[in-house]
Specification:
Helix content is about 25%, strand content about 20%. It is an alpha+beta fold.
């Protein structure tokens, strides 16, 4: 179950995902030097709009795709605070594919009912998780967060 995972935040502190039990989650692998990075603006708009209703975005920087998440997790966090004023939880950098793939991402891919393949193609792949911890959808990098806002509202 998704709540069984403990992740490191951008400061290296352990965060149990059980902390997010009962919330609707959007889990995103991100990068600050990617063509999709402007999606942070829409992510923040969704967060501001629905956070009070139990919506959380979990941001996992990933440097696997052309090294588009340079610097430490703390550096990335500072960049995101300054450029996009993010308020949602941001974690340490992780791998989403390959031999060092984080088990959370294996779980997300294995348990998503939408068959989009087992590989994450690029930064800003997004997984929607309902309040019971079920992975209910996966959106590719080019899917702008506003394009699936209605689906988020349905699970809230």
């Amino acid at each position: 179950m998704i709540y069984d995972y403990t992740m490191k935040d951008y400061e290296g502190k352990n965060v149990s995902l059980s902390k997010f039990k009962g919330k609707v989650l959007l889990i995103v692998n991100t990068a600050t030097k990617c063509g999709f990075t402007p999606q942070y603006t829409e992510l923040m708009e969704l967060y501001d709009k629905y956070q009070a209703q139990g919506f959380e975005i979990l941001d996992f920087p990933c440097n696997q795709f052309f090294k588009q998440a340079p610097g430490s997790a703390a550096d990335i966090h500072q960049t995101c605070l300054m450029k996009w004023q993010i308020k949602f939880p941001q974690f340490d950098k992780i791998d989403v594919n390959g031999k060092n793939e984080h088990p959370l991402y294996k779980y997300l891919k294995d348990n998503c009912p939408v068959d989009t393949g087992k590989k994450i193609k690029w930064n800003f792949t997004k997984f929607l998780v309902d309040r019971e911890g079920n992975v209910i959808n996966r959106f590719g990098p080019s899917a702008k967060p506003s394009s699936f806002e209605e689906e988020i509202k349905k699970v809230l």
